[in-house]
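Dear support,

We are seeing what looks like truncated structure output for some complexes. This example has two components. We would appreciate it if you could run it in full and send us the complete C-alpha cell output so we can diff it against ours.
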Amino acid sequence: MFVSQSMTRSVITVEKEAGIIEAQEKLIEHRIRHLPVVDTDNRVIGIVTDRDIRSALPFKLYKDSTGDKAKENLEDLTIGDIMTADPRTISPEDTIQDALLLLQELRVGALPVVDREHHIIGVISVRDLMRAFINVLGIGQPGALVGILVEEEIGQLKKIVDAVAEENVSIGSVLVARYWDENKRAVFLYLLTQNVAPIKQKLKKVGYTLLDPMDWHLDQYLTEE
Amino acid sequence: MNRTGFLFDERFLLHETGPYHPEIPERLLAIFKGIKEADLLPLLKPLKADRASRKWIETVHDKSYIDRLGDACISGKKMFEHPDNLMCSETYDTALLAVGGILKTIDLVMQGELDNAFCAVRPPGHHAEADSAMGFCYFNNVAIAARYLQVQWDVERVGIIDFDVHHGNGTQHIFENDASVFYYSIHQHPSFAYPGTGREFEYGSGDGHGFTRNSPVLPGQGDKEYKQLIEEHLVADFERFKPEVILVSAGFDGHVDDDMSDINLSSEWYTWMMEKIMDMAAQYTGGRLVSVLEGGYSIKRLPELAKGHVEILLNG
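Here is the complete output from our reference environment:
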C-alpha cells in the first residue's frame, strides 16, 4: 500500500528553460498530462500540466503553426514562465491512502514522488491509483457482486464469509460501505463464481437482507456532503 | 413451414456436475419435455451427435488446454481448474459430442437440407476462453461453429447473437480482433453480474474494432429495455454487417423466474426476440440460422421457453 509500489518510475521531466512546444511534444509522445520540472540536479522545482500549456498557446497558433507574430512571442516563453513552482510532492514511503486523500484535497491529477533530497524518483497519478483500485476491487477477474445489509455489530462479516466458504467459493474483494441507516452497513462481496444464487439463498436463510442492486451506493457518504 | 433440425442426444446428459450445481442434465430433459408435449417433435428433423474431430476444437482452443481437459477427465477429477467447473469422467466426451453435433447440424443447413436448427446441447460454451474453462463452459461451441463455417464452408461473415443473461466473454475475446465475425451480446450489466465483462465501451480491437457490440442492461429491467436495445444496437449493426449465417447463443436465464440473474424478461420477450432474429435471417442469410443452447436454469420455465423458441424456428 505504499506510493513506491504504485507510482510510475520512468518519469519524463522537463527543465524550466525548455520551450512550451517542446514540452507539449513530450506530453503527446508519452501520452501523459503532467511534467515535473527539474533543475540540473534532478530536483523538483515545478510541475506543468497539459492544461497550463494549452492555456499559454494562442488559439490561432495552436490550430495553425504558421502563425508568425504570435509564434515569435511564444518562442520567448519558457516552461519556467508557466509552471506551478514548488508543487506539493509526496514521499515513496507514504501510502496509497495518503496519495488518494492528498490528490482529492489539492484537486490535482498527479504528484511528483521525491526522495529526502527532493530528487524526483517517480510520479503518482490518478491513473496509477485507478489501477490499484481495480486490483483492490478484484474486477479484473470473472465474478459477480452481491450486496448485503448487516447490523453494525461485531462478527457480522464472519457469518457472511462462513456462508460463502461453505459453498466453496473464493472471494475477490469485500467492501464495507456506510448506509443511510447509521445502525447498518452495506457489505459488498465480489465473488469469483458464476453460481451466486445458492449463496444468496443461504444468506437470506440465515437472516440477512440482500440489497436491491439498484440501491447499491458505494459513495453515499461522500455525495451527501 | 421451415425444415427445422433439433439436435438432442441422450449422451448430453452424461456430463454430471453433482447435486448442488445449476447446470444439470434436468435442464435438457425440461427442454425436451416442453417440445414433446407441444407435439412439435414430429415436425422437427431429429439430429444425433457425432464426436467432433480434434482439429475443429483446435481452431479455437489451445492444444495444451484441450490436453489438460482430457487428462482431468481420465484422472477422475470432479472439478476442472475452478470450483464453478464441476465435471465427471464423461465431461470431455460430452463436450466433444456437443461440438460435433453442432458441426453436423451446420453441414445440413449449409447443404440446404435444413433451413435452421436448435441445438439443445450441454455443456454450454460462451464463457470458455481459448485457454481456459469458465462459468460451466468447456469448449466454446458457438465460436468453433463460426470458425467451421469459415473454414469448411467459406462463409465470409458470421453474425453471432448472444442473448444469454451473462456476457459471453469467451466468444467476444476469441473474435475481438476479427472483422469477419460480428459478436453481439445483450446481458445483465457486468457491474452486477458474472463475468464482469461486456461493458458498453468494449467494441473489439484492431481489425475487429466495431465488430463487437455489447448492450448491458441494469438489474430489475426487462422486456421494454431489451426490446429498445435490440432495435437500437443489434438491428442497426446487422444491417451494416449483413451476416451470411447467423449463430445464436440462446440462454434463457434472463427470465424473471430464473434466479441466476436480476433481469425480468417474460416468456413473450423470448418469442419476440426469436421473431426479430428470424426476420434478420430472412433478410440477410437466406434463413440460415443455427441456435445453440447456453444457460437457462429454471426447470419450471425451460419447457415453455424451448417450445416458444422452436415454434418460431418452424413457423417464423
